[in-house]
Input
Amino acid sequence: MKKCKIIMVAALVVGITMGVFAIGAGAQIKSGIGVKAGYFMTGDEELKEMWGGGIAFGADYLFLLTPSYGIDVGVDYFSQVSEGITLTIMPITGSFIYAPGGGNLYLGAGAGYYTAQVSGEGEQPAQMDSLLTEPEVEIQSALGYHALIGIALGPFFIEGKYSTAKIEEWGVDVGGISVFGGVRL
Output
């Protein structure tokens, strides 16, 4: 938990610093392919106790319709191993993006298809007791929603996202909080 707080504070400091410099530079978000890396922490307490959070990766394509409005389609990837069991979460999302005044700060909201996989051998969370059976891999998916905020400076960006996606079969929410830094080509 302390590690996550440090990463989030560092991301905010860098984001605010980039924002201050970008205001003077007249920067704005740009269309293109983005690659990003960061930290993901699941919002579900049961999953958080077992797997916590960890490094996540992603890629997206942002298409600006006007300087202030755009559409973003992307995929993220998170995988963590704990007690011999691997949890992998991979959302495919679409977002509507709004950049007030066509600037470098942007807001977004959207929906996605969240796929989660649990595999391996070991003791699993109590509410997921019957999850792993032969062949020791279980894959489930759910529709989910998210909100995001980001700041761009030239080709670089920092983005924070809150997501929620409840997998009814497991009784867990595979969404959470992610903080990414990346570059848009």
User: Anything to note?
Assistant: The chain is about 15% helix and 55% strand. Residues 40 and 178 are 4 Å apart (CA to CA). Residues 2-25 form the longest helix (24 residues).
